[in-house]
Structures are given as structure tokens and as C-alpha cells.
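COMPLEX REQUEST
Ligand: iron/sulfur cluster
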Amino acid sequence: MSNEVKKKSPPDPNSAKFKLGKIATDAYVDAQAAKDRGEMIGWCSSNFPVEIPETLGLAVCYPENQAAGIAARGGGERLCNISEDDGYSNDICAYARINLAYAKIKDTPEQNMPQPDFLLCCNNICNCMIKWYENLAKNLNIPMIIIDIPFNPDYEVSDAQVAYVKAQFLEAIKQLEELTGKKWTEEKFQEVMEYSGRTSRAWLAATSEAKHTPSPFNGFDLLNHMAVMVTARGKKEAAEAMEVLHKEYLENVETGNSTFRAEEKHRIMFEGIACWPYLRATSTGLKSRGINMVTTIYADAFGFIYDDFDGMVKAYCNVPNAMNLEHARDKRVKLIKDNHVEGLLVHTNRSCKLWSGFMAEMSRQISEECEIPHVAFDGDQADPRNFSEAQYETRVQGLTEIMESKKGGC
Amino acid sequence: MLEDGERIIGTELLVAGIGTVGAEKIMETVLKKADLSCDDIDFVMATGYGRRNFDPAHGELSELSCHAKGVLFTNPQVRTIIDIGGQDAKVLRINDEGILENFMMNDKCAAGTGRFLDVMAHILQMPVNELEKRAELSGNPAKISSTCTVFAESEVISQLATGETVENVIAGICNSVASRVAGLAKRIGIKEEVFMSGGVAQNGGVRQALEKELKVPIKWSETSQMMGALGAAISAYEQVKKRGVLNE
Ligand code: SF4
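STATUS: Structure written out below.
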């Protein structure tokens, strides 16, 4: 059994957790400060190339992160209702409903962010994003810059796709320069690229420490830390904080410690966005049975390693929701094998049609190839009305019992 | 209630609502009938949705494992178990060693569960066990397409209002449950023999519709509904055996 790492209070300012938390919080503060200085700020979709605003020195906020924060603090249903009252269907992604409501009411006790002057949208994550941002642009009467990265039905990204997307990256840079007066410099881009590479390498190294048994960390940590990977990869502080994270995990491996505060009896992979309104219920359901969620596709997805502009373009064409089923499956199979995963728990996320849609077939294939059980539960990343704790519990217990019986117990 | 892991010495069924009062009552009755007391019981294993709140239990096990154990105890050659219970529907896949290796449960809502049938029986004003007999008399099953229980209820009402026979509507209801569950079974993969456990196994209408959908014979027994409880009792015995102390 691994020893527990007790919570320190007050938090150690040199710890990765503190540093990463600060970067995530500072993103809102910095954007507000830029706005107060009279600079134009943007709202940006999560897989839009963060290197573009970063190199231009533009502050942006991420509605998906804000929506997750609002949902985790209990405001999801209230904001979803506001959008639904305005006529948005409750079938629309809850992040979109929460953000469209926030754009209207502009103030929530859970998490505020400054109002945007422009929008940066990329559909490599889903097409719901386009309509969501178009509505924002119309309601707020501000410009929207869109990069179209279509779903790639082939295993590899073709040169033609890179050329198609690269032209749009260049156009987006030009549009932003004209709009904000900021200038793109090659020197700054090189710096951002270098930090982004350092952050990504540290992230990949840290998450790969789950190969040890017991894992030096609780996989739920990744769900929190990934906010920094999404939004701040290209910043110096992010690179430094991720390197500290990796160092801490390495120390845990050496000393037999872990941020998973229980005996690690089983190791699973979690698939899907966290169920933010029920984070405690979902994590306790696992922890109480000694299940550590050692990995998720995020562990692989945010390792953006490239060495030039074209490489960056290609990386954005290769994000999880834009790649074909076989490629997406193989990435997961690798994570499962590398990290000695014994079961797959799939969040059938009612908000996220694309991701949840292909998981039914993908989990069947993964399960077959890796000879592990897979179990799906219904939920939603931000709308609390789509989850039942009793149903979740039964499924997780069933999964546990199968994993136990495979080890000769039960 | 199981003696020495092999003799069933008491069964009792109570369709009860919330809480653990029903389970407590069952335990009292089953002990009384067998002329035993709590002290004679080595291990109580709870299963089902209230399993964590039943105080007299020494352990708890999910209904998934319990149904698998119960069915394999009585029918060891079974490789696929379809269990349609009150709150959920599940398909269990058993490997060649007779161990539960994967399962699939209903998603999104109550469609395809026993509760769906309860609601339908209620609006048709007949006991749920009447559905089977009436479904057999259907010449041309009606199409009940809505997965939402409440919408299906209104569909039933309007079908009847437009002159559809009760028998055809009931057969349509059975088909609708069967097609939802068949979807789960196909996703996880059917391996013969197939056995149906849970209360709905008694409904021949659903059973036959499932056989038609899955194109395999489906076994069942009069005690299908008891398979979860039997599995729990078996695992209680396994626990006691592990511990090594048995009541005389
Ligand atoms: S639908 Fe899925 S991918 Fe799209 S914004 Fe919502 S959560 Fe993200």
C-alpha cells in the first residue's frame, strides 16, 4: 500500500498543485487587468491554437473552463435554465448553454470572466462550437475568427489538410493583427513554441509515471491540471510548474507515496470529460473501492510536441475529437497497456455527442484488444440533471467485482 | 436462504417500495418459515439498489455478480444472461471459466426495464403478469416506438383510442422492451446458451420477442426472479468458507 500524502495547509507555494492552481486563476485576473488597461481581450475555444493569442500577447479566457468551474461549484443547472428559457434546447452541450447564459447575465458568484471583444473558435473539437460562437458573436455584436479543422476520416493527417489549415492559421493571425494592433514576431513565436514544448514534454513525462504500481498520483489530478495544458501551455510558468509536477511524481515513486489517498487495488482508465457537478460522488465511488483512475486520453492529448509552424498546424489536426476511430482507439490501447489498466470506465456524456457517440464502438474494440471489462454510465459534464448516483454506483461496483474476480478474488 | 452452499432452504418474494423495510420483513418471514433465528445465519449478503443500507447484512455485492452466480449455479453452461429488473436492464457475458467478464446496462432512461411494463400494465388496468397471456392473443402487434415511458404511455392511450386491440398494444409493448434490451445484448455480443433472469423473465411476450430479435433460444425458469438472491446467498457461503467457521 502506498503511503498517503497528507494535505498541507496552508498550501506549499512551491508545490506543483499551488503553481498550477495559480496559473489557472491568474488567467482570469490577467485578462481582467488587460481589459482594464483598455486592451482587447478574447474568448477562445479550448483547442484553438493557443500559440496564436500567446505570441500576439493577447489575453484570452476559455468559456469551457469557466463553465466547468461554474458546474463544479453548483451553478450549472441555474445557468442552463437561463439558456433554455431563452429557447436553447437542452440537447445542446451544457458548456454552451452555461456560457450563452453567462454572456447574457455577465455575473455569477461561481466564477466571473471579463466580457470579450472578439471570439476565437476552432471546430477541431466539435461542430457545436461553431453555432455556439456564432450566437455569441451575434448577441454581443463582436467579430468571430474561425479556424475550420474538419474531422479526419484517415489515420494520418495529410499534407493537403495541413495546407488547408495552415492558410487559416495565417489568416487568423492577420485578422487579429488588424483587429487588435498587436504584432506577430517570429522571435516571440519561437519562445512560445519552446515553452509549449517544455510544458508538453513535462506533462507527458508526469502522466507516464502512472506506469508504476502503485501510481504516484490520483488520475483525478489530471482533470484539474489539464486546464493549464489547454490554456497556458505556451507560458514560462506553465513549463516550470509542469516540470515541478513531474519531479513530485518521481519523488513519490521513489518514496512509495501517492496523491491517491487509499490502497490502490485496481487501476482503470476514465473516458470522457469529468462529471463536474458530481466530482465528489464519482471520485468517492472509485476511491472507496480502491480504484485509481490512473490515466485518461488527456494524458496523451495535450502533449503538443512540434518544432515548427507546420508541425504546430499538424498537431492541431490531430486532437482527439478530430481523429478517426482507429487512431483514437490505438492511442487509448497504448495508454492502457503502458499503464497496466484493468478496466475502462466510460462517461456517456449527454452534452458531448461526438465524443460519447463513438465511444460505444471504440470501447468494445478496446475491451476486446486489451481483454479488460468496460462499463459506461450516463452523466453530463455540467448539467446535473443527467446523472444518477445509484446507477453509477451499481456500474462501478460491477466493474470492481469483475476486476476482483479476474485476480481470483470475489 | 441457502444451507451449506447448495440447499435452498427458504425463499420469499416481496415487491416493496423504498427503504429496507421489505428486506427486513423478508428475512423475518424466511427465518420463521424455516424455524430458524438470526443466530443460525452465518452470513447475510445484500444485493440490489438498497444493498448498502441494509443493516443486518455482513456484506454487499452488486446484482450483476449475484445474477451471474445464481444463474451459473443452476445452469452452468450459460454464457449470456439477460436480466430485466425493475430499475434497470442488463446483459451479462460469462467467459468459458464461468466467470462474469463484462456487462452492459441500459442507458439514458427506464425504457427496457421492468418499470416500463409496470407503468403500461397500470394504464391498461391489469396486473403485470396478465400481459403475457394477452400478448399471446395478438395477431398483429402494434408499434410502440417511443423510448420515453411517459410518451409511450400516451402512445398506448392514443393507439387504443384509434381502435387498436388491447392484445396488439400489449404485444407492441413487449416488443418495445425486447428491442431495447436486444440492442444491449447485440452490443456486448451473444454467446449461447442465453438465459433470462429477473422478474420480466416470466413474461413470455417479452421472452419470445427477444428470441425473435436475437435469433437464439432463451432459457428461463420459474425461479428466474430469485437468481439475484440465490447468487447473493452463494457468495455469502463463499465468504464463510473463506473465513473457515461454519454454524453447525
Ligand atoms: S460538445 Fe463536447 S467537445 Fe463540444 S464543446 Fe461541448 S463538451 Fe466540448
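REMARKS: Residues A 93, 95, 125-126, 128-129, 273, 321, 351-352, 355, 381 surround iron/sulfur cluster (CB under 6 Å). The radius of gyration of chain A is 21 Å.
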